[in-house]
């Protein structure tokens, strides 16, 4: 790509290149901000940041996908709607500056291939690639988990999306060919090898765009907080919804009997949490059929109890379920549009794409996009020969 080549040529020996992936969540949806479990993996595609250090404290950020170019310093940084995607790097610079990290400015060109608004964490990818790059430029040794938490703070406080920790964690901490089982309450985690045998993960994009900021995402979080407060009024020992066992929830459920919507939300969180642990066990024992069944149950719970799917995601899942060779399918990410993830026999992938596209288009008028996924590593500096990563 010409813009990248020109940037690389102009930067010469000063050039540094960083990469942060997108993520796909296998199961454990809308559990992170309730202190539950999630089971995401980093994708092999994501965002590259081509960086040329400056010495005047000024940042100039540009993207190969948008015309917008924004310049800013390290002080008085505020969210501005017209700065669009550049609010992510601005927020990161603001956080780093507040932590006293030396920031001498930089030219940054972003070049990514995560579809925007697809629920594959394009925002966390820009945040992490910026944070990892600027920490490296500043020569500071912030731990990766610190950077992950910092980027979540950017999203919560600068952008205004009350997201949990899952996206930033997967993007910052992912490992090739592994999923991460993360306890979002304690941040304890472990990697589980993604051994899928003859099956592959296929992401299908509804091509219905949505942004968490204008979806009901924040409303769901508030509902969970309200439900927790009601439960805590009688059971102060319950620290988070993620802590509730199925038996604990059966006992607490009558406390919310006047709030059927809240009951449904909690029911989802508690059952989804169990499904994450069961999925991890199924994967580790090679029981992919069980893993697939749990994916489908997860989608049904997100559709009926948590109400974050919508007709496009439901149409994709229904279309996928009837394809021979597809043993599991569900929405992934925040919902309200975005993508599904499906477990498909490698020999059935062509047929899967054909049948799902035909049924989905007939039902919605939209054309889906498919990505057969490879699972990659978390954010990092890219070293080595230009030709291996250039554009
Ligand atoms: C979005 C959020 F950013 C995550 O924190 C998580 O809540 C997810 O939606 C739903 O599981 O991706």
UniProtKB/TrEMBL annotation:
It is found in: Cytoplasm. It comes from the Bacteria. Pathway: Carbohydrate metabolism; galactose metabolism. It catalyses: alpha-D-galactose + ATP = alpha-D-galactose 1-phosphate + ADP + H(+). The keyword Cytoplasm applies. GO terms for biological process: galactose metabolic process. The record marks 23 as: Transition state stabilizer. Substrate binds at residues 29-32, 217. Residues 282-354 form the GHMP kinase C-terminal domain. Pfam families: GalKase_gal_bdg (PF10509), GHMP_kinases_C (PF08544), GHMP_kinases_N (PF00288). Gene3D superfamilies: 3.30.230.10, GHMP kinase, C-terminal domain. PANTHER family: GALACTOKINASE-RELATED, MEVALONATE KINASE/GALACTOKINASE. This is Galactokinase.
């Amino acid at each position: 790509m010409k813009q990248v080549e020109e940037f690389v040529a102009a930067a010469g020996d000063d050039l540094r290149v960083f990469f942060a992936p997108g993520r796909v969540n296998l199961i454990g949806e809308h559990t992170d901000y309730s202190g539950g479990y999630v089971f995401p993996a980093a994708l092999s595609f994501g965002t590259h940041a081509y960086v040329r250090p400056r010495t005047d404290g000024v940042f100039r950020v540009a993207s190969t996908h948008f015309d917008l170019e924004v310049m800013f310093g390290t002080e008085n940084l505020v969210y501005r709607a017209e700065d669009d995607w550049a609010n992510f790097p601005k927020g990161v610079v603001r956080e780093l500056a507040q932590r006293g990290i030396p920031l001498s400015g930089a030219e940054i060109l972003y070049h990514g291939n995560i579809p925007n608004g697809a629920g594959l964490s394009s925002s966390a990818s820009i945040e992490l690639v910026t944070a990892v790059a600027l920490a490296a430029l500043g020569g500071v040794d912030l731990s990766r988990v610190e950077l992950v938490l910092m980027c979540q703070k950017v999203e919560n406080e600068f952008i205004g999306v009350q997201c949990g920790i899952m996206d930033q964690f997967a993007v910052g901490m992912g490992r090739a060919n592994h999923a991460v089982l993360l306890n979002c309450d304690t941040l304890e985690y472990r990697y589980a090898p993604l051994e899928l045998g003859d099956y592959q993960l296929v992401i299908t994009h509804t091509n219905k765009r949505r942004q968490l900021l204008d979806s009901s995402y924040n409303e769901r979080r508030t509902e969970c907080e309200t439900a927790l407060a009601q439960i805590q009024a009688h059971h102060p020992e319950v620290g988070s919804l993620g802590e509730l066992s199925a038996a604990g929830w059966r006992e607490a459920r009558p406390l919310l009997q006047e709030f059927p919507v809240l009951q449904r939300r909690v029911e989802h969180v508690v059952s989804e949490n169990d499904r994450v642990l069961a999925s991890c066990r199924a994967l580790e024992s090679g029981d992919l059929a069980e893993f697939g069944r749990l994916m489908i149950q997860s989608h049904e719970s997100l559709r009926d109890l948590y109400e974050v799917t919508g007709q496009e995601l439901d149409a994709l899942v229904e279309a996928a379920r009837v394809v021979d060779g597809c043993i599991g399918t569900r929405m992934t990410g925040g919902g309200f549009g975005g993508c599904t993830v499906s477990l498909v026999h490698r020999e059935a992938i062509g047929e899967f794409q054909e049948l799902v596209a035909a049924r989905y288009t007939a039902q919605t008028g939209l054309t889906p996009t498919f990505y057969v996924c490879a699972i990659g590593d978390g954010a990092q500096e890219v070293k080595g020969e230009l030709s291996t990563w250039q554009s």
